[in-house]
Design goal:
Layout: H1 2-7, H2 11-16, E1 33-36, E2 42-44, E3 56-59, H3 60-66
Antiparallel strand pairs: 1-2, 1-3
The structure holds zinc ion.
Zinc ion binds near residues 23, 24 and 26.
């Protein structure tokens, strides 16, 4: 059963298990509201008040789709 569970993991899910908020260092989840900053760091909106311009913001799942850089992971 354990093997089936691992095989059912998509690439996106694998990536999600690695991507952590740059502020609180907790894992980012699909439905979290995030900022993407100029260094392509992903930060929870609740953890961060932008001082500089952010590149994008929104639900992480949507931000992830927009930027091909995440696909390389
Ligand atoms: Zn955070």
């Amino acid at each position: 059963m354990n093997d089936v569970f691992i095989l059912s993991f998509t690439k996106e899910e694998e990536m999600l298990n690695r991507l952590k908020c740059n502020a609180c260092h907790k894992l980012i989840k699909y439905k979290d509201f995030v900022y993407l900053d100029m260094l392509n760091s992903v930060i929870h909106q609740r953890c961060y008040t932008p001082i500089f311009d952010v590149k994008d913001k929104g639900i992480f799942q949507e931000v992830m789709k927009k930027y091909p850089l995440f696909e390389e992971w």
